[in-house]
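=== RUN LOG ===
request id: a7f3
mode: sequence -> structure
chains: 1
length: 168
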Amino acid sequence: MLILVALVSALAVPAATHAADPPPLAVGSGGIASGDDFSSFAFAVTKSPDGSVHGSAVFRGLYGDPSASLVMRVNCLRTGVDVSVSPENTFVRQTFALASGEVVHASDSGLIGRTVLFGTIDGELTTGMADTDRIDADFAGLQPSVTCENAGLALLNPVVMGGVTVRQ
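=== RESULT ===
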């Protein structure tokens, strides 16, 4: 009986010392070649084990004006994998992040207080080889009931300088 208790105790210790999975995150910075809404970006967002989200994002070159910028405090992060079919009829896994939050600073004061959304695809995780990261945003302002948890966004702008990392 004593040997059984010692064996159970010995087996329980390693299980208790395993590190928890790292929290979901989305980080990145860079530029895009032909964005209508912005030309450069930087963001860092993490989701804690308790579900709280902390982070911010900065977008510059809004609507073609190189001096225009927007800073948002992110309070919602959804990461995941979407599977689609390519034009060549192969399955493509897209690792993505959608984030929403409130505009806290902007060169256009009319944007301050709006809830906005941005999304990104980590190209390196999408196909398993070097592929283009993508990003897009909606600065028009979301309805109060819309967050990153229930919104969708077409992620069309390829990142041409810099890159993004998404961990789910």
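=== NOTES ===
Helices lie at 2-17, 123-127.
The chain has a mean pLDDT of 83.
=== END ===
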